[in-house]
Specification:
With 259 residues, the chain is an alpha/beta fold. It has four helices and 20 strands. The chain is globular, with a radius of gyration of 17 Å. The two termini are 27 Å apart.
Length: 259
């Protein structure tokens, strides 16, 4: 299994002989609803568009997960698995192979990778987006991805999981509270899923944020603090910090669920 972190929530996961691009923001700025004065994310240079993508996996319909400028550049014939909200974005852009996964539903890619949707992040009072469990069918190795740190108790049924990708850092706004949960939320999912490895997402990387909203943004935690928290709780999970753009191999032990 190979992983490449592409900044923010964007990942390239190579699993089961397939290349899966997750929540890609690779080109241009990150702006919500064209309000660049409110919030704008930018990097010094665009990320190269990865070759030979077998599947695009979208957890949310917001721009930091379903980034229109990036999606416009990608081949519209690539298969897409998406939350209902994210599916609307790619369908409007003209993608031709879009599968919507509601919570609890499963999709299998060429009999090699199984993808199951779980409840993820709440967006507003009525919408709950997706988190995903990806399973390499030949080896049984699993990856759980939730980019805002909102972990449904339903995911406990998947334990043990080999790799977890979720935030380590809390991001909060006055009156709103935490919209990204790291720290204790990540610790809780480690207790539930007992992963061999956990990796951070959503924060850091080669990205600069500006705009009015950043003046009120509260940040708490770090990868080092989270590593100490894991050790203090006598958990064996390895905490890794990938560098943006670096492709690295995860060597994981095969294990069976104890009964």
């Amino acid at each position: 299994m190979f992983l490449t972190w592409l900044d923010s929530n964007s990942w390239l996961l190579e699993i089961g002989g397939k290349r899966i691009l997750i929540d890609p923001w690779l080109v241009g700025s990150l702006i919500f609803s064209n309000l660049d004065w409110l919030f704008k994310g930018s990097r010094s240079q665009n990320r190269p568009i990865p070759d030979n993508i077998d599947l695009i996996l979208l957890s949310q319909g917001l721009e930091d997960h379903a980034h229109p400028p990036t999606l416009k550049l990608l081949d519209h014939s690539i298969k897409v698995i998406a939350s209902p909200n994210a599916a609307k974005v790619v369908q409007q852009l003209g993608y031709t192979q879009v599968t919507v996964l509601a919570h609890g539903e499963t999709f299998t890619l060429n009999n090699q990778v199984e993808i199951k949707a779980f409840p993820g992040s709440p967006i507003g009072p009525t919408l709950v987006e997706n988190s995903y469990l990806l399973k390499e069918l030949e080896s049984g190795l699993t990856v759980y991805y939730e980019p805002h740190g909102y972990h449904s108790r339903k995911v406990k049924q998947a334990a043990p999981v080999d790799v977890v990708i979720t935030p380590f850092v809390d991001l909060t706004l006055p009156l709103v509270g935490p919209f990204i949960k790291g720290g204790n939320s990540a610790l809780e999912v480690v207790r539930w899923l007992k992963p061999q490895v956990i990796l951070p997402t959503a924060a850091g990387g080669d990205v600069v944020f500006e705009g009015l909203i950043t003046k009120f943004l509260g940040t708490k935690g770090s990868a080092e603090e989270f590593r100490s928290l894991v050790e203090k709780n006598n958990l064996s999970t390895q905490v890794l910090e990938p560098k943006p753009g670096d492709r690295f191999e995860l060597r994981l032990e095969k294990r069976s669920l104890a009964i």
